[in-house]
## 1
Amino acid sequence: MIDSINKLFQSTWSIYLIFIISFALYANTLFHDFVLDDRVVFTENQFVQNGISGISNIFSNETFAGYFKDSGRKSTVGGGRYRPLTLAFFAVQHQVSGNNPFIAHLFNVLFYGLLNCIIFISLAKLLAYRYPDQAKILAGIATVLFAIHPLHTEVVANIKGLDEIWSLLFSFSSLYFLLKTLESKKILHGILSGIFFMLALFSKENAIVFLALIPLAIYLFIPKEIKRSWVIYTPLVISSALFIGIRIWVLGASFINSSRNFLENPWLQFRGERLVEMNPAEKYGTIFYSLLRYVYLNFIPYPLTHDYAPKSIAAVNLFSPLPILALGLAGAAIFFAFKWRKSKPLYSWSIFLFIIALIPTSNLFFSIGAYMGERFVFVSSLGICMMAAGFLLRFLQVRYSWSIYLLPIIVLAFSARTIARNTAWKNNFTLFNSDYQHSSNSAKLNSSLGFTLLENYRKSDDKEANKYLINQAIFHLKKALEIYPKYTDCVFLLGNAYYIIKDHKDAVATYEQYITMAPGDMSIMKNYQKALREYGRFLFHEEHNNQDAKQVLIKSLKLNPNDDQALELLGSAEAELGYLLKSLEYLSKSSQINPKSASVWANLYITYTRLGDKANAQIAINKGMEIDKDVVKKLMTVKAK
């Protein structure tokens, strides 16, 4: 079997096979919608929506600035983000094909295939120095394992994930041309290495880890006989300096500043009403537990979820078994990475790749806004795949009887898991609904699922048949508020949900809670005013509580003095309370605003009659009967009772 695999990766067809595998695994994402953060970087990013004319703004602003541009808000993500290259590409896409998810998904899958081809070519060239007879089979197995890994569905199936794909693609292109520089001594190859590294950095800042990983690769794999002057790294250093300089010019010098937003800083917790930092033992215990989960998911990719926001993972004390195990594994990995640097450079660089690539998103030095994320281990997982390739090849060489089945089993199992996981990324509802079972304690996921269910109900034609959608929405919104009581967006949505189902009492209470939490936001006032009016209607007609109805309706009219329905209701309540002149004032104003309302003329008739003004009473009833006899008769019947 080993000979067959070796022949396969030695052939010129191997590169096409890797591309086909990569494309085939994600072909079922091509007809997916825009999902999750795609709106932030594409469909609702004003700079991207401006097409080519927005590119200058993309390069001169923080990544999320175009999304927040018209909202009056700004990103609270710690340290800011500067990843203009993929946004510029999205702007060009939008210019050419509009907001077309098929085109965007197609590019993601094509670039993922290209990425895996570049990884294969680069690894084969690198490994050839120390493993000349096994370089292509090692590179091939590692690349195939990487291409099929289910952990990568978040990157490939999510259009926003193009930043991860490009960052790694250009980083390995930089490595490839640096290796070419060693071979050819041509300045052009060195320049190309620097250009590709610059592109990697402008795709995603995390590519900076390759400023350490590429020299490490050269040190570990390239023999001393081949000149390894530090001069060859000059293009990488220049690219890094230019990027950092531009980033500082655009965002300022602050790289690490923790957000005080509970949803974007998992190390905050409530102590009573106060939001305080988690104690160090729990913080670092949870961090090392999360890092251990990364290792676990690389070998057993289940369960998978897009959401690791607060409080999807319970706090773990540093001195409990799993964090201690994580620390032990980390110590052992670092020990063997150094020990094997000369005897087993494949394993050494694999370990360094996994650890170093994970450092920026580990939470050890600064908060990344979540406990962990499957996209954060995208680059690191290549280290695991390379190490696995080494072990698999060794098993095959020793010819263990079971080893011939191991690789096919892994390929089939991982491929099936990837294809199945892709289906969750069809749209927001399928993603949120699927991942809820694994992240049920996430405030953000409960809110997102509640919002999506609410939108699905609004868009449904048969509201009665789909009432379960809004009931589920209310359940998830309330659960989000249990986790994070000050979740203002969630309070807003819950108020809207109550309003839609005509639970106006709870709608009013929830809107008032929101107004207390966000007093400067006027966007809620229209619904709040209407909810007050309808709650007043309920108190008047159903509860026959005229005094409370009057107070609620007065509040409604303060927000909209020209609401004819609220005026009519208040006039009717005043009449029942015996304040007939006040009743006449409100009803008259209502009839002036909406003279075609049969009910207001009927109520005027009643008030005029009680005042003894028979002439105006007759005029009022005549007008009401002209407009709608049935409404007048029905109202008279109710009043008679």
Note: The mean pLDDT is 92.
## 2
Amino acid sequence: MRTRKSLLHGLGWFVLANALLFELITAWFWHGVIEPAADAPAVAYRVLNTLVHWPLLALIMAGLPTALAIVLLPRRQAFKWGPWIVAALSGGIAACLMIVDAVVFSQYRMHLGPYVWGLVAGGAGGETFLVYSRKLPFLFGAGALLIVVAEGGLFALCLRLAEGRLRTLARPVWITWVVLLVGANVWYAWADAHYQVNITQESGHFPFYRPITAKRVFRKFGVTDFEQRLVLPSASNRGLFYPSQPLECSPQRRPNVLLIVVDAWRGDHLQPQFTPNIFTLVPQSLRFEHHISGGNVTRFGLFSIFYGLSGNYWWPVLDHQTPPVLMTELRRQNYDLEILASSPLVHPEFDRTIFSGIPGLRLRTPGATPYERDRRVAADMVEFLSDPARARKPFFGFLWLNSVHSYSIPPDYPLAFQPSWSEVNHVALGPGFDKAPYLNRYRNALHFVDAEVGKVLDALRRSGLADDTLLIVTSDHGEEFNDTGKNYWGHNGNFSPYQVAVPLLVRGPGWQRGGVVSYMTTHNDLAPTILTDALGCTRPPAAYSLGWPLRQTEDRRDFFVVVDYNDTGMYEPDRITLFSPFGGFPVYSHDYDRLDEPPRMDHVRALTQDMLRFSRKPAKPLPR
């Protein structure tokens, strides 16, 4: 039986071997995904952190559990294989986590951590990570078992190597590593204190990385006199003063309002071949060609539609369970409400935000699959519109269909676009993946949803209420198929037009038919539009929204806040500017090529004020 000392010697090389394995696992997603370092110091820091971070992860994830087993397990024959078992399990689990992290990061630019686990545990994982092959759990289980066996073999190999010539090298290797680890952390702390964004932004590339910061320490000893930079809103801002002034509404007439949201509908897919039924509305509606959602995920897309606010307000709104003034005013004016959602209204927590306090709200629609639920909500809306009672009282209808987001298609539905992927498997996606079958499955799902929307539009026409209904058809966010060429798939990955640009058609009493609007608009404009146009509210929208009525052209901006679970950005006609959590405002093209241009700081400051407007009590009333 080996001594504890010999086992610990072998463990040291086992940790270093796993560090190399972790780096090899992640190396394949660095190429073409991670941007080149900003300058020579950033290159040096990246190399330094590569040398220290992977051994640290391997030490914590595989070395520490095995060391505890070596030290604590009794030295008896019955426990002889205990350290091997712990090494195999801890090393295997760590390697599997690295593989999953690499896949997630390559497509969504997020590492595993409390934020991602919170999304999955809170039920929001489906709106970010989409769907995978049914075979994946079995393949992953078999692969994990092989990795665990391989880790056990690796531990045995390291024990043998530690008894040979490598034994004398262990101490200098680990001493060098400790020195480099201290140096890397001191360098990062210095860079953070001096706002050296070229260095601090590197930390976002490494999984489970928690660098040390020491601004106050450096300032205390007079090493630096850092200047406080522009403070950006964060999830810790929980104050809410919304609306800043009460609404004043005196409607001359009360038209019906019907809002139809097709989940994950790209802005460039309002075409007769993809959406033939919805496209029949184009000659009858005002079409907004450059319309941007408030985010690239459902939570913030729908939030911006109903509240007219940026996504950073979601958290205080959820804390206070404050409904949007739009829903409050609809109820005050005694509108009939018909809220029909294919997705559950509890994940995200729309039952405690957008639809907070609405009695009889159906939280979940029956149906085993998204396409079944889409058929159910469409049929329910048809039934609602066909009721003669609709002519006696104005109504607000909300129809949210989810099959496009889930790529869900009935088995008997004819597939207009071929070849079509039979089963979505995101693990198969990569830079060289042929996207045609995947994109065609998306288009087939969109074609199916369009047929369901067509039934609702027919029912609205048959009811005789179409001319007295403000009809809005749009989406919560877009969907990317590696359009940027940087291995982005789906949504919640970037703020390119493929993920945030969505269609918008508006038809209603007094609205131009067959017109096209070329100036930029945003989901923040929808709530002010309904409140002013349908509900007769005269209070300036700045009292309750960050948007303007859609048809207002004066004082309109062409830069907007966009939000996802990981980032905040500013969308402009020619660029996208990120509000980096590491400091600075990197600028990108719409195809996410890094631009060597400074941010437009006047726009950044204006949007920062917008993101704080309803987080603090207004000092004086807004002008009428």
Note: The longest helix spans residues 40-72.
## 3
Amino acid sequence: MALGVLALSLLLQVAAAVLALRLVRITGRPLAWMLVAAAILLMAVRRSITLGRGLMEDDAVPPDLSAEVVALAISVLMVAGLAGVGGIFRAVKAAGDEMRQLLESAPEAMVIADDADRILDVNAQAVRLFGWRRDQMVGQDVTMLMPERFRERHRARRAAFHRNPRPNVLGAAADVYGLRRDGTEFPVEVSVSPLRSARGSLVVSSIRDITERREVERAIRESEERYRSLLNDVLDSSPVAVAILDGALRVVWVNRAYEGFFGIARRDVVGQPARTVVKDRLAPLVPEDSDALDRILAAYENNTYVEAFELRVQGNGQERWLEHWSRPIETGLYRGGRIEHYTDVTERRLAEERIRLFMHICRSMQVGLLVYRMDDVDDDRSLRIVTVNPKAEALLGFPKEEILGRRIDEAFPALRARGIPALFAEVLRADDARRVEDFDYGDDRVLRQAWSFNAFPLPDRCVGVVFESITESKRREELLRNLAAGVAAETGDAFFRSLVRYLAKTLGQEYAFVGQVTDEGDRIRTLAICDHGAIADNIEYELKHTPCAEVVGRHVCVHEAGVQQRFPKDVMLKEMGVESYVGSPLFGPDNKPLGLIAVLGEEPLEDPETARAVHQIFAARAAAELSH
């Protein structure tokens, strides 16, 4: 019997050491757990020597192997170690990130569904986690991802969520399971958040496979009676703030991270009622409009469930975002108490804010934006479109759904012959931007135009392409060249006659004239008039009540349509049947008003920008001729 006791003692403590070594791999904290294993083995040797000496005596009584104090230490240690691994989010690097890129780079499976539970989008992690292809999930009911026995409860939760939409965490209490394509079930933790969009109310779910966590928790439960002495040695160095409450909900212990996050010394809270600490110490650090403290206090009143949420605190001279996670202690010395974790997620929240800002900028950009992701860095055929902004839709002439998620050769088949996929791949390899000017492109869907674009590298093997059509600007340049060539050799009255003819023809208008201010300054005497392509006799008219009064001595004036309605007292506009008007002032060397150039049309003006540009360019030449 005595030898059996000795053997059992050795076996239990060696098994605990082996478990600590296993947790080296699970938690990724080799130094801490190697120290734990060494400590346990030393205890085993010491225990064996003690037992051996005791058993030499005839009346030796086998010692008691239970160690409740050690047990709770390991429970706290393992939960905190696990939270340290899974709870601290990596900040998303963001200056050039956007929504599809964000989904694909998320560490957890992401599922976006509408208010009818239809799946709208998933990321690659969701595909790997559930075993379905993306096209097999999109459009299906989200309950396809959960076992049958959970679906009715899910529908009830969904209805409650849409009545009061706010971020929530499901599955932390081990009551939510996922269902893979092959029929296997696995425990999950699901963070759900509401999202308003053009499609209505959406639900964004972040799904984490917590099978490994459950296995670790099971191992912790089996070992929690053995490791109480390790509490201060390991947990106190954790980056996750930890507070332990006893069965009377008094603070038993907090670690150094807790002191740092809240600016509270351990000696000031240990032994105090947790409610008092929350009301007196934490309340001044949390914004008044937050419900975080109410949720903490509610968990104290009904200490039967897991609570998880995020809160903003301003303590110790710094503002932080913390993720609160707490659960009741169900066994051991502090049974009936509670353990609380606070993980710093400030960097993640800042990254999310940068992403929101970036997405807002993308939506408001006045140039097209496409983002490609290169799934295989060695194959430019793997370039896939992950983002299309609204301006890109307008420039390309079709909705983004037609190309979003497609390979570059599917979306724009004629680009490969021009070497564009290879150029994008080179942008990634060289980590340097490229600009292409005057690129002629068109295909079965895209109207052939002249384009210019900039391609630049983004994180996560992505290439951003900002592009615009330069067809109109090239047309304007051609118009200006033709107009300049038509009047270049002329001077004096011949110049003015050539100018008004070319202005009317180039801009497609019925009338154009050049006028000079009379000495009195209240009338205009024309120097040349083009009327439906022919030079007409000059006239003199009063400026008052005409659109020309807004131009002379002032600035360019454009009325794309309805000019008669704006100047009802201008009889000449009505007689000529004028609908649109563009006028540009002429100034002398001393900035003295000389007159104006005006173009008038019987139809609304189709291209006001070109008309404005032409006027501004030739106003200087006309003013120079008038000054001679």
Note: The radius of gyration is 38 Å.
